[in-house]
Amino acid sequence: MSEKRYDDILLISDLDGTLIPRYEMISEENVRAINAFTAAGGAFAAATGRTPESALPYLEGITVNAPSIFFNGAMLKDLSKNQVLETRTLDGDIWRTFAARVLYQFPRACVEVYTARQCNILSPEANDDPRLDDEFYNVNHTTLKAVEKETWLKFFICDAPINLSFVERLAQELGIDRCSTSFYSEANYLEFVPPGTSKGAMAEVLKAMPAYAGRRIIACGDYENDVELLRMADVGIAPEDASEDAKAAADRIAPPCREPLVPWILREVL
Length: 270
Prior knowledge:
The chain is an alpha/beta fold and 270 residues long. It folds into 2 domains: 151 residues, HAD superfamily/HAD-like (Rossmann fold, 3-Layer(aba) Sandwich), CATH 3.40.50.1000; 100 residues, Hypothetical Protein, Haloacid Dehalogenase-like Hydrolase, Chain: A, domain 2 (2-Layer Sandwich), CATH 3.30.1240.10. It is built from 9 helices and 14 strands. It has a 6-stranded mixed β-sheet, with helices on one face. A 5-stranded parallel β-sheet has the order 2-1-12-13-14. Helix 1 crosses helix 9 and helix 3 packs antiparallel against helix 5. The longest helix is centred in the middle third of the chain and has 14 residues. It is globular, with a radius of gyration of 18 Å. The chain starts with 8 loop residues before the first strand and ends with a helix.
């Protein structure tokens, strides 16, 4: 492998369900392949709905040498410098009204407000999303009143899919759909981020930075929240077991997530 073989490539990858099988850690094969890629001049960034703190344990041992995308596109952060470069925020009192209505009308939902510092859970602890037990989120069980004055980056509801369809109707009724971007990151996860926000939109910001301008973008993702990222890339890649929306947006279909993705990319795409 020549020293600078990949110096014209920016590889951006989703984590859960793409680079990492759900509820597992990243494989050694993927770690070695990413580090070989960056050692040969490649730039690597993560693009995830996670907070930086909850993503870092999954990136341990990996050379992440380009700013990464968090909160499904609401933050761009340089992990190597611990520096936030861009944020998008949910502004206006309407979000507090929406949160209050969701808490009242959907008493079994797990309702979360994400700020730059932590995941704030507004619903009863009994409603907590089970994923939080084994993940690395900085979790704060609190009240809506306690976070009303905070800067919100993402509003998240975990509930049965049928209930989330009614949350969508409520969002339309209150006009939330006109001041946000919403999508499913799992069948039972409905997320709201600032208008025009997506992994793909923040990847465009990254692409325009002088250090990455002119690089060919290879992007990987597996779900609805990855569609814009897959579409903006020069080559979009979805695992074989990705959602139909993600596979439709991709240019290439990789083996299922349980098979190491990055060695396949280096072998079959680059």
